[in-house]
Amino acid sequence: MTTPADVNDVRDPELPGRLLTIERDALVPLLRARTDADFALPVSACPGWTVRDVLAHSSSALIRVVENRFEDGVFSPESNDRDIAERADWSHARVVDELERGMTEAGPVIARAGGALDGIALGEWVHAGDVRTALGEPGAYAGAALPTVLALLGTLTRERGHVPLHADLDDVDEPLKLGEVSGERPPGRFIGDATTLVRLYAGRAPDDGAGYELAGVEAAELNLFGG
């Protein structure tokens, strides 16, 4: 896997949609092959939520993007719980159908939003990793979408003025520059693999035994999703 060091210099409006398409093509067939019992499994990254709850949240978030429904308090814990409750009597297949539709149709809307909604695509990909972990599937927070995720991380961390970081990745040819470019704070340094890096930005613990080095910045400062 390779990606250039300067992928974050200019926003690519099509990038979030490409990420959603890659993830859709991998995740939806996996979900359709699972049993009803699998949808009731707990998701450790989202305490109190099952696989079904995470999928219902993800699908509802994307449909809100598609339909431009952003009322006050949207995406708050209370709003998320209401979205999940509204789908309580749906079949698992219907939830997956809505997720597939959202992953298909949200990309162009996100592209036109000028960057304001780019983080939603990343959040969807992270939740797909949460679901894979709960299902015991390989490739959580990794896979074919990883180069696209790294590029999107570059854009998001720069535009949000996030803590600067230089990442020397084992599986990427060139160093990756992330975060603000003001020069007011010296960049931190990460040495390790790309999956561990994106886990830290997603606020997910690295795999047991994952060897990495982080200097000049605390792991919690990298978390894009807070909390």
Task: Explain this structure.
The chain is of the alpha+beta class. The model is unreliable at 2-8 (pLDDT under 50). The protein contains 8 helices and 4 strands, in the order ααααααβββαβα. β1 and β2 (176-178) form a beta hairpin. α2 (51-67) packs across α4 (92-112), α2 (51-67) runs antiparallel to α5 and α6 (146-159) packs across α7. Helices cover 49% and strands 7% of the residues. A 4-stranded mixed β-sheet has the order 2-1-3-4.
| Shape, per Cα inertia axes | globular
Average pLDDT reading: 92
Note the run of SSEs as H and E: HHHHHHEEEHEH
Number of strands: 4
Give a quick account of the main beta sheet: strands, pairing sense, barrel closure. 4 strands, mixed
Radius of gyration: 17 Å
Spatial sequence of strands, sheet with the most strands: 2-1-3-4
What portion of residues belong to β-strands? 5-15%
| Helix-and-strand structural type | alpha+beta
Could you give the distance between the termini? 30 Å
> Uncertain regions: pLDDT < 50 for 5+ in a row?
2-8
**Helicity, in percent?**
40-55%
Tally the helices: 8
